[in-house]
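Q: what sequence does this backbone want?
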């Protein structure tokens, strides 16, 4: 089967599909139109997709013509609550919502792969599980689909997927073995004191002053409690408290994010935030209460699968267009699918001009969608390669 020809011939239709999704963005768990189009097209291609998995997720299975491994391929479908400030014909038609991360492209790529491979089913071994996931941006979609039995009765051997990237030139595959994306945990910290008149500080416990010292003290955790060759970051991103010029409030609320790769480090960071905040607050007569909202684990690429991806990518896009991806402190709930089996999540470049060079989540983020057929070619070949691998690993 010549996949390259198939995807090249579908370029116009892929661009049209992507721009349609782009013009109609749907944010976390609202992806009903997108999921409807995906499931309808899958049905037309001969699948019996499961709809509404974990809210708006779609799962479709392709059974090959002979025994072999099971490969799961996942695309996320959600947009972001960000306005679209691009001046293009396919700009968002929904105020305040925008496909500013490229998930419209992911959905288009995986849907097209499912359609193309459907006609090749009899010649393929094993089976492919196509997963179209909601709500990646709030890292809730994978969890919801798994809790809803997305993989009930399915034993997965390999998990693959790609994320389009404006950090890479169009057509470049960037991949790394081992830890690739961080485990993103969020936290809320409530600093409690005892309020009163701003002119009589001797009669209050000032949570504003405590919060200031907690914020400063927390900066020492990554610097002093994490192995310098490991990676971690703690950022305080919100602070709220007080109502007037002359009132010292009862409490100050702080929020932020803790990101890490190593599970042990992840535990240390959360417990140190708790200890430092409580200790500083206690020393000043107040108290601190930490709530951690645990995100997905880190994305860790399997060495063997990553080597397969590299080899396939070299074949499809050429040696010079395969790069080593940097570790990224951003998280992705692809990690929950990758918890099911070994796998690899890689990046595919979509930057070809200033217009497609904005960072992800920027109101003017855009992808060079002429690169989509190539991205589909790479991912489809990765799937086929993993299906046809000569040795089943245990
Ligand atoms: Zn994103
Ligand atoms: Zn994304």
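A:
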């Amino acid at each position: 089967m010549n996949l390259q020809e198939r995807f090249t011939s579908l370029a116009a239709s892929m661009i049209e599909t992507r721009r349609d999704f782009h013009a109609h963005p749907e944010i976390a768990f609202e992806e009903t139109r997108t999921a409807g189009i995906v499931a309808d097209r899958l049905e037309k291609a001969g699948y019996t997709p499961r709809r509404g998995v974990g809210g708006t997720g779609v799962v479709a299975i392709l059974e090959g013509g002979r025994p072999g491994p099971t490969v799961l391929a996942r695309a996320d479908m959600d947009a972001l609550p960000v306005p679209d400030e691009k001046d293009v014909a396919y700009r968002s038609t929904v105020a305040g919502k925008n496909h500013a991360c490229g998930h419209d492209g992911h959905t288009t790529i995986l849907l097209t792969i499912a359609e193309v491979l459907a006609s090749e089913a009899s010649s393929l071994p094993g089976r492919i599980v196509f997963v179209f996931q909601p709500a990646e941006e709030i890292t809730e979609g994978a969890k919801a689909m798994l809790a809803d039995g997305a993989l009930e009765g399915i034993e997965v051997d390999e998990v693959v997927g790609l994320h389009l990237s404006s950090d890479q030139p169009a057509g470049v595959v960037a991949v790394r073995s081992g830890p690739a994306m961080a485990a993103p945990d969020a936290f809320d910290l409530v600093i409690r004191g005892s309020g009163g008149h701003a002119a009589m500080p001797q009669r209050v416990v000032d949570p504003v002053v405590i919060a200031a010292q907690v914020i400063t003290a927390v900066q020492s955790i990554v610097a002093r409690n994490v192995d310098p060759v490991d990676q971690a970051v703690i950022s305080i991103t919100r602070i709220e408290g007080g109502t007037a010029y002359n009132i010292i409030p009862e409490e100050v609320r702080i929020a932020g994010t803790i990101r890490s790769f190593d599970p042990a480090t992840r535990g240390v960071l959360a417990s140190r935030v708790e200890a430092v905040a409580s200790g500083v607050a206690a020393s000043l007569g107040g108290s601190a209460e930490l709530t951690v909202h645990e995100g997905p684990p880190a994305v860790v690429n399997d060495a063997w699968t990553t080597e397969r991806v590299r080899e396939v990518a070299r074949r499809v896009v050429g040696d010079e267009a395969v790069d080593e991806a940097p570790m990224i402190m951003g998280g992705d709930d692809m990690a929950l699918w990758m918890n099911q089996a070994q796998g690899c999540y890689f990046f595919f470049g979509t930057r070809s001009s200033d217009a497609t060079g904005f960072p992800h989540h920027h109101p003017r983020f855009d992808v060079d969608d002429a690169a989509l057929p190539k991205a589909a070619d790479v991912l489809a070949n990765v799937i086929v390669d993993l299906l046809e691998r000569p040795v089943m690993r245990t």
